[in-house]
Amino acid sequence: MTRGDVVGTWRLVSYEAGDTYPMGKDAVGVLHYSPEGKVSVHIMGEGYFAYYGDYTIDGATITHHLEMASEPSFVGASNVRHARLRGSTLVLTGRMGAREIKVTWRRPRARRRKSARR
């Protein structure tokens, strides 16, 4: 996997920890990877969680290096995620504290732009 495979904006499909949904089944979220190596995550539902930092890719592993986080104890952490990309779906798995998590993201379809009228 390369940066080119993940760069852009992704929408949350689900955030699971075993058979539970830490932010609720109806949580919404956005994940953004920049070409310059920055990552931003926002998830809202039964609470709010966000972080920002750098990311690195090594094969099928993406590591998020947290520079800022809504949970102060996460600042400075490196979240190692095993990544699986199939078409427009990206599945990230790994540990979040004591839990094994699975976060599924989908790349939104490109919108057709309306031409400007004169």
Strand content: over 45%
State the name of the first-level CATH class. Answer: Mainly Beta
Q: CATH superfamily assignment?
A: Uncharacterised protein PF14869 family, DUF4488
CATH fold title: Lipocalin
Task: Summarize the topology.
Blueprint (H helix, E strand, L loop, with lengths): L2 H4 L1 E10 L10 E6 L4 E8 L1 E12 L2 E9 L8 E9 L2 E8 L2 E8 L12
Antiparallel strand pairs: 1-2, 1-8, 2-3, 3-4, 4-5, 5-6, 6-7, 7-8
Polypeptide structure, described:
With 118 residues, this protein is mostly beta strands. Helices cover 3% and strands 59% of the residues. Strand 6 and strand 7 form a beta hairpin. The chain has one domain: Uncharacterised protein PF14869 family, DUF4488 (Lipocalin), CATH 2.40.128. The radius of gyration is 15 Å and the shape is globular.
At a glance:
With 118 residues, the protein is mainly β. The chain has a single domain (3-106), classed as Uncharacterised protein PF14869 family, DUF4488 (Lipocalin). 3% of the residues lie in helices and 59% in strands.
